[in-house]
Every structure is written in structure tokens, then in C-alpha cells.
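Need a sequence for this fold. Nothing fancy.
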């Protein structure tokens, strides 16, 4: 049995290179198709990951805890008390990478020239590190020194709109806990860099300063958290809900449904692209195989006349397809590896960067495809490529004697 297989393998390999042009056409069809599948998957995943990371770092985190009604009316009236022991134990557990309390309320900011609506966010800068963008986003000036620091951080675009800069004073106004309008002056300590809408819509002060302005005492607006492993997020959210039944605990998917939809859409695009490219590739494989079989009618008829059964001829031709498709897939895998290596430092979107930022992606996309997905797509292309030629090959093999007689 092994000797027969070795002989068929040797014959199949030699048959491939009897007509290099025909074999080259199949290699190109398979190689380009598989390379495009793998590379396009890497690009879409890079966009999806960039969009997700940008959204999560824009103060969303993997999940948040609010008072009920806050998300519908994010004012000072819907505030949280300090976390209970049960809730704090979960947040301080090994599953949580970082968590931070915040004060977030609608407000207005006034400079010497302009007044603009914003979201006033009180933060503890040390707790925000690794959780949100603000810890590393100061572009000019200084970061807030601590949870009780004075000063305010503005986005670059907001500072330009207000005609203000680092060192100048602005006034923040909002509704206090007692229902009255409260206001306080702050000196701009720094300007931060982020996406255009974030720069224009947010100002940051220390959490103590925000609580003092609003008269909230030790109350807060929200708790944001990140986990070490996103796979355990649904179970962790369920445990938080059990520990704080009166609060509103939500994952990032519920907080940012648009981002979740975009990620799902990207996954659908990958599947669609794989399907389209496989159909195009299959046409190329089938047509080239049929052309090859038509050219080899006399040869295959002679083999049958010498006693080789049709099923063995079918196995011989199928083995040729297995080998040539495998070579095409290997070439595609090497091409994809080279492409990822060339762009290992990321793809700068250049003049498209601003448009990408509006859709939540970063200026630079880092192409990435998981090893498992890389292997799965390659194997899928190989298997489907071989299967695409089985039916027409079998039908053609059965007509070989008739075609040979007609040609004779």
C-alpha cells in the first residue's frame, strides 16, 4: 500500500511540472486568493482592535457601575455611595486589572471669550493609569498631580475654541447636589490629545475638586473597571450585579453598542471576503483542472487501457490537486508573513487618519492575525480548494474513454 502511494505521489509531482504554465496558473489563483484572505483578515482585525481599544480607553473600560437612571439622565441627582465591602472585594480581586471611581456630570466651561457645553469628569489620576487614555494624554503642560489636585485639563480642540491656553483661568459651571447652579474658577494646568470629539467635549479635574464643587461629599457618579481576561466579563458582571443589586452594572457591549456592532460587522466582512475570494479561486482551480484533463485525455485513456481503474486515476488527479493547492497555500502563508513583517511598525493612515479617528480607529493600524486563525484560514483554503475540483474531475475521468474514441 505504501509503495503504491509513493509511486502515485512521485507521478503526481512529476505531472505537475510537465506543464509549468498550467501549474503556475493554479498556484497564482490559489496563492493570491489565500494571501488576500489572510492579509485582509489582518487589516480588518487591526481596524477592529484599534476601534475597540480606542473606545474602551475613552473612559469606557470593560464595564461600569452607575446608579440606576444615571445613563438616561447623567446628572448629579443619580449618584453612587462609596462601594460596599462586598463590591470592593470583587473590584480588588485578582480578575480585575484596574478600577477607578469618577464623577461625571454635564457642565459648561467659560473663558474670557467663549462658553461651551462639556462633560465635567473628576478623576484620580493614579487609578486612571492603564484604564483610560487621560493618564498618558497630556500634550502640553502638566497632568493633575493627584486625587485632590487643583487645576483643570482641557482638550486641544476645546482650548482652541475657547481661545485659552495653559496657565489661563476658566470657569466651570454645573448643577450642584442641592439643585442650585454652582461655579468655580480653575487654572488650566494641561492640554490633552485624543480624538476630535473627545477633545472638544471633556474637561478633567481631580475627583476631590469635582465632589467639592458639586457638594457630593464622598459620592461618585460611576466606577469603571478593566479585567485581565475579557472572556470572563459576562460572569464577572453577573457577580457585580449580585453584590450591588440596586446599582446598574453594564459591560462595554451594553455601554457602547455601536462599537460592538462595528466589531461584529468586521467579523462578518472577514467571512464574506473569504467566501467571495474562495468562489473566485474555485473557478480558477476548476477551469484549470478541466483544461488539464482535456489535454491529457489520450494519456488517461491509455492508463485505463493498461488496466488502471478509474478510481485510481481519480485518486492520481486528486493528489495532483492536493499538491498544487498546498503549494499555493504555502506561498500565500509566506507572502502574508512577509507582509506582516514589512508593516510590523504599523500602517500610518496618513491623510485618512482624521476620518479614521471619527470612526474610532487610531492613526496607526498594527496588522495582526492570530496563529490559530492563520492556520484555520490556510487549512480551510486548502481543503475547499481540493474539494472544488472533485466533482468536475470525477465526471471528466468517467468520460475519458468516450472522449478518447471521439478524438481518435
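Here you go.
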Amino acid at each position: 500500500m505504501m509503495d503504491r502511494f509513493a509511486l502515485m505521489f512521485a507521478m503526481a509531482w512529476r505531472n505537475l511540472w510537465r506543464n509549468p504554465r498550467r501549474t503556475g496558473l493554479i498556484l497564482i489563483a490559489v496563492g493570491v486568493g489565500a494571501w488576500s484572505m489572510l492579509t485582509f483578515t489582518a487589516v480588518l482585525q487591526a481596524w477592529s482592535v484599534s476601534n475597540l481599544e480606542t473606545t474602551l480607553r475613552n473612559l469606557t473600560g470593560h464595564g461600569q457601575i452607575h446608579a440606576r437612571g444615571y445613563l438616561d439622565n447623567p446628572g448629579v441627582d443619580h449618584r453612587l455611595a462609596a462601594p460596599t465591602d462586598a463590591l470592593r472585594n470583587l473590584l480588588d480581586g485578582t480578575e480585575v486589572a484596574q478600577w477607578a471611581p469618577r464623577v461625571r456630570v454635564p457642565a459648561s466651561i467659560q473663558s474670557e471669550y467663549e462658553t461651551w457645553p462639556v462633560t465635567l469628569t473628576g478623576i484620580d489620576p493614579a487609578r486612571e493609569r492603564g484604564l483610560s487614555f487621560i493618564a498618558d494624554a497630556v500634550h502640553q503642560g502638566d497632568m493633575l498631580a493627584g486625587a485632590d489636585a487643583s487645576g483643570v485639563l482641557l482638550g486641544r480642540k476645546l482650548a482652541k475654541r475657547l481661545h485659552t491656553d495653559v496657565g489661563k483661568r476658566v470657569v466651570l459651571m454645573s448643577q450642584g447636589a442641592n439643585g442650585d447652579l454652582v461655579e468655580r474658577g480653575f487654572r488650566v494646568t494641561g492640554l490633552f490629545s485624543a480624538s476630535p470629539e473627545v477633545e472638544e467635549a471633556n474637561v478633567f479635574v481631580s475627583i476631590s475638586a469635582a465632589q467639592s464643587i458639586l457638594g457630593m461629599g464622598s459620592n461618585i457618579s460611576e466606577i469603571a473597571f478593566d479585567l485581565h481576561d475579557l472572556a470572563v466579563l459576562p460572569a464577572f458582571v453577573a457577580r457585580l450585579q449580585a453584590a450591588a443589586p440596586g446599582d446598574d452594572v453594564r459591560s462595554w457591549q451594553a455601554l457602547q453598542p455601536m462599537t460592538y456592532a462595528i466589531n461584529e460587522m468586521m467579523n462578518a466582512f472577514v467571512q464574506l471576503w473569504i467566501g467571495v475570494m474562495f468562489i473566485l479561486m474555485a473557478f480558477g482551480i476548476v477551469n484549470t483542472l478541466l483544461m488539464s484533463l482535456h489535454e491529457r485525455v489520450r494519456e488517461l485513456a491509455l492508463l485505463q487501457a493498461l488496466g488502471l481503474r478509474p478510481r485510481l486515476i481519480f485518486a492520481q488527479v486528486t493528489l495532483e490537486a492536493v499538491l498544487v493547492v498546498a503549494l499555493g497555500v504555502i506561498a500565500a502563508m509566506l507572502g502574508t508573513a512577509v507582509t506582516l513583517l514589512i508593516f510590523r511598525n504599523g500602517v500610518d493612515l496618513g491623510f485618512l487618519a482624521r476620518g479614521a479617528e471619527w470612526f474610532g480607529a487610531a492613526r496607526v493600524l498594527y496588522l495582526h492575525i492570530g496563529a490559530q486563525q492563520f492556520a484555520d484560514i490556510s487549512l480551510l483554503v486548502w481543503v475547499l480548494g481540493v474539494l472544488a475540483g472533485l466533482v468536475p474531475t470525477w465526471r471528466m475521468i468517467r468520460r475519458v474513454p468516450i472522449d478518447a474514441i471521439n478524438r481518435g
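For context: The mean pLDDT is 83.
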